[in-house]
Amino acid sequence: MTGTRIDKWLWAARFFKTREQASKACDMNRITSNNLSAKPSREVRLGDMLRIKNEAGEFEVEVLALSQQRGSAAVAQTLYRETESSKEARRKAAEERKLLGPIAYAAAPSKRPSKRDRRLIHSFRGDY
């Protein structure tokens, strides 16, 4: 095998839980291959450099192996090698999130909203 679809490879390498999510990420320009925006059908080859943005962060990886099947996490990690600069950037981002501390959320209401409250909520959201 000389190449495989990028959405299948991203799914097999466990960057996304489903192939559909990988495909959407490509459509939203969150995946670049060799500094070019990647469409879901783009071929991935050995040695390609990919930049991947997902919920876990931003990864810059080199493709070491090809696969169209999703395997265990241990197998998935053998498909790529993350660059040192990418590891360092993700580590710094994690430290910054840790320093910010827990995000303050609004306290949950103690009772159900009244009819008037619901109307205000709906008008605020633009539902009516």
From TrEMBL:
InterPro entries: HSP15, S4_RNA-bd, S4_RNA-bd_sf. Transmembrane segments: none annotated. Residues 4-65 form the RNA-binding S4 domain. GO terms for molecular function: DNA binding; ribosomal large subunit binding; single-stranded RNA binding. One of its GO terms (biological process) is cellular response to heat. Residues 112-122 have a biased composition (Basic residues). Gene3D superfamilies: RNA-binding S4 domain (3.10.290.10). Keywords: DNA-binding, RNA-binding, Stress response. Residues 104-128 are annotated as: Disordered. It comes from the Bacteria. Belongs to the HSP15 family. This is Ribosome-associated heat shock protein Hsp15. The lineage of its organism: Bacteria, Pseudomonadati, Acidobacteriota, Terriglobia, Terriglobales.
